[in-house]
Design a protein that fits this description.
Order of helices and strands: HHHEHHEHEHEHE
Structural class: alpha/beta
Largest sheet: 5 strands, parallel
Radius of gyration: 17 Å
Number of strands: 5
Distance between the termini: 39 Å
Number of helices: 8
């Protein structure tokens, strides 16, 4: 028996509701040790998919779509719930999460889940891949699509991310947007905060309450001409 691909939802469906995410996440069991990693991302993911990202199930293969890369792939339950809420696949698929034959693995698979851009889970891969995605789009003359990547603060312990940060700023990759979920899980801190690391490399950066949807939206949509953008979303690690 092999994994099957989740099919996108067809026809009319109710408007997505943030307050339904708890119920959708509860349909997935078997990865409770990574529940904090998932729940820390719910608000940022929701604001992105509901109000910011220019991608839908109908445009998931459109060259001009925005790209979202989940680097924090070891806790994908909130990501799957948000995708289901926005019609990328039927919510009943969530019940098979992590089971043999299910398209929804403990790490997301771009070949099995509609809307997923990369396979992820190992820390430190997503931001370098996002830089490469922007460079690839530019090489094709596609300067309108925006590339978003969500990373965890602990991923900034990985040197691959710092190489990506150091390249993107001087290169002026203003199509690139990074959301850092700061739940105080990093081994190493940064004098002046995480945002200062990005700013030192020439990025536009802001730090906001990671549960405040209006603050997240304002930070996600702030102009940053000629510079990549980083938004550090602080969340209570115990919440």
């Amino acid at each position: 028996m092999t994994n099957t691909t989740a099919a996108p939802v067809r026809g009319l469906r109710p408007s997505p509701d943030f307050h339904d995410l708890g119920r959708l996440i509860s349909l997935m069991t078997g990865a409770e040790k990574h529940a904090p990693a998932a729940h820390s991302t719910t608000d940022a993911l929701w604001v992105l998919y509901d109000r910011v990202l220019r991608v839908t199930p109908a445009t998931a293969d459109d060259p001009d779509r925005d790209r979202f890369l989940l680097s924090k792939g070891h806790g994908p339950m909130a990501y799957y719930a948000v995708l289901a809420a926005h019609g990328f696949f039927d919510e009943e698929v969530l019940r098979g999460f992590g089971r043999y034959g299910s398209p929804l693995g403990h790490h997301p698979d771009r070949l099995l889940v509609p809307g997923v851009e990369i396979g992820s889970g190992s820390l430190g891969h997503g931001l370098p891949l996002a830089v490469g995605t922007v460079l690839g789009l530019r090489a094709q003359g596609l300067t309108d699509p925006r590339v978003w990547v969500l990373v965890g603060d602990a991923e900034l312990d990985e040197g691959s991310n710092h190489e990506a940060i150091a390249h993107a700023g001087p290169a002026g990759l203003d199509q690139l947007h990074t959301v850092v979920i700061d739940n105080a899980s990093a081994t190493h801190g940064w004098p002046g905060g995480i945002a200062s690391r990005f700013e030192a490399a020439g990025w536009s950066a802001a730090t906001v309450d990671g549960r405040d949807h209006e603050a997240l939206y304002a930070a996600f949509t702030a102009p940053h001409p000629g510079r990549p953008r980083a938004v550090v979303a602080r969340v209570d690690p115990k919440a």
